[in-house]
Model the fold of this input.
Amino acid sequence: MSTEKQLFTISVYTENNIGLLNRISAIFQRRHINIESLNTSPSEIEGVSKFTIVVNMADDNIKKIIGQIEKQVEVIKAYYHNDEETIYQISGLFKIKSKLLFEEPQIQNIIKESYARIVTVNKAFFVLEKSGRKEEVVALYDKLSAFGIMQYTRSGLISVTKEEMKISTLLETYNN
Done:
């Protein structure tokens, strides 16, 4: 076991109940662990939600956290993985003045080079969407900020594991 901190992605499969998010976040708060990113979504099984939580912590504490999360009545199962064990993405939205799209040829090059996608354009602004690794979205932010960004937001990390997870079998029996 190591006390060196690293990023972990925690996947929590749950019933969809009110108040569960507060109880799960309190587990991290009590241990003074900052949540880097949090996403909730439906899972591959109908009626079951998935929390994707990214934390930076020592691996000797991650099992304790998982145990605490699994003590919550609505939690079906929780897993943790490091970056090498997952395929992950984030998404960023950038709102920029429309005149820059036509007056600054560099903007069009930045869009092409970053593989960003124009979501909408009107007279006042255009919106770009960029999905990828966090470093790619941040790099696009850095390039565009020189021209002025009106609004910016970034999603939490979403991920799937490289190895098969037995959760699908567990969830199938849960639903029957």
Observations:
- Helices lie at 20-30, 59-70, 98-103, 105-114, 134-145, 167-175.
